[in-house]
Specification:
It comes from Halarchaeum salinum. Catalyzes the ATP-dependent phosphorylation of L-homoserine to L-homoserine phosphate. Its main location: cytoplasm. The chain is an alpha+beta fold. It is built from ten helices and eleven strands. The chain binds adenosine-5'-diphosphate and ligand LJ64HWYM.
């Protein structure tokens, strides 16, 4: 029996659609695996009632199939589904790390990112790896077709999750199929600024680098209260705010001394709109970890 904790993640960070991701300190999924003749899944925790236990429809079950590693899989959800905080990815990442160790498969973490991305494909329709990469590797990650980079960074973040659901599959449907050249140039400038900010642990550059004009406005329209929450976060000292993943969570960067105020301002702004919300104060966190191994 083996247990792995894999963290929530925030993908895109505005300018890095389907490319950037960052591991958060919390929340996290905790996945326990035991060898079995065929895969079965049991889900408890946040939003468990919305998550299929059929292995073909659960990201962890798809990972077990991809690794040819049948197991009884217990998933304790810390990351609520349809949150924009990489819920389905956290289970996939944890299962990939756990089953790789349980069956001694010897895959590298980079190889496990590809396996876990197949789990994501099963639920969102496309094998985007920008959540599973940081959930497995930790840090700030850059995913391309030819590989994945991970760098450690120390930048305060606030993830604010309202009590509304936006499915990644639906939110992918509103992404424009083309963009104007000046918007593409702007996005490249932002992405480079954000990357430099992560490298230098500079919250101002990370926040400025979140600005993006193509995907974000289309996604923001699906999130009640988006403009008011962004404004409140900025007034409280956020250096940048954007949609986390496909939403409805928002992610903000800030200096450490402003983190508490930014978190409160975001929650209050959602509440002023009649929407319950909670905020997670985080830094750029670690990746999946084996927390129990009973041989
Ligand atoms: N292990 C899992 N954890 C969470 N969601 C899962 C899992 N397996 C399948 N799903 C399905 O994936 C969808 C949630 O994923 P997604 O929309 O990407 O949410 P998030 O933005 O939080 O990652 C839901 O339809 C859920 O039923
Ligand atoms: N790049 C994907 C990321 C989805 O993240 P999630 O946390 O909402 O699953 C996208 O933007 O569609």
């Amino acid at each position: 029996m083996l247990t792995v904790r894999a963290p929530a993640t925030s993908a895109n960070l505005g300018s890095g659609f389907d490319v950037f991701g960052v591991a958060l300190d919390r929340p996290a999924d905790v996945v326990t695996v035991e060898r079995a003749d065929e895969t079965t899944i049991e889900v408890t925790g946040a939003g468990a009632q919305y998550i299929p236990e059929n292995p073909a429809k659960n990201t962890a079950g798809v990972v077990a199939r991809e690794l040819d590693a049948p197991a009884h899989i217990r998933i304790d959800k810390g990351v609520r589904p349809s949150s924009g905080l990489g819920s389905s990815a956290a289970s996939a990442a944890a299962a990939a790390v756990a089953l790789n160790a349980l069956y001694d498969r010897g895959n590298t973490n980079e190889e496990l990112v590809r396996v876990a991305a197949e789990g994501e494909a099963a639920v969102s329709g496309e094998a985007h790896a920008d959540n599973v990469a940081p959930s497995i590797l930790g840090g700030f990650t850059v995913v391309r077709d030819d590989g994945v980079l991970s760098i450690n960074a120390d930048v305060p973040l606030v993830a604010c999750l309202p009590e509304i659901a936006v499915s990644t599959r639906d939110a992918r449907g509103v992404v424009p199929r083309s963009a104007e050249m000046d918007d593409i140039v702007h996005t490249v400038g932002s992405a480079a600024t954000l990357t430099a900010g992560m490298q230098r642990d500079d919250p101002m550059l990370v926040g400025r680098g979140m600005d993006e004009r193509v995907v974000t406005p289309a996604r923001a329209a699906l999130i009640d209260g988006y403009d008011a929450v962004c404004e409140a976060a900025s007034e409280a000292g956020a250096t940048g705010v954007t949609v986390s993943g496909a939403g409805p969570a928002l992610i903000a960067a800030c200096y450490p001394e402003r983190q508490r105020a930014v978190a409160s301002a975001m929650v209050e702004a959602f509440e002023d709109d009649g929407i319950d919300a909670r905020a997670y104060r985080s830094t750029v966190g670690r990746g999946a970890e084996i927390i129990e191994n009973e041989g």
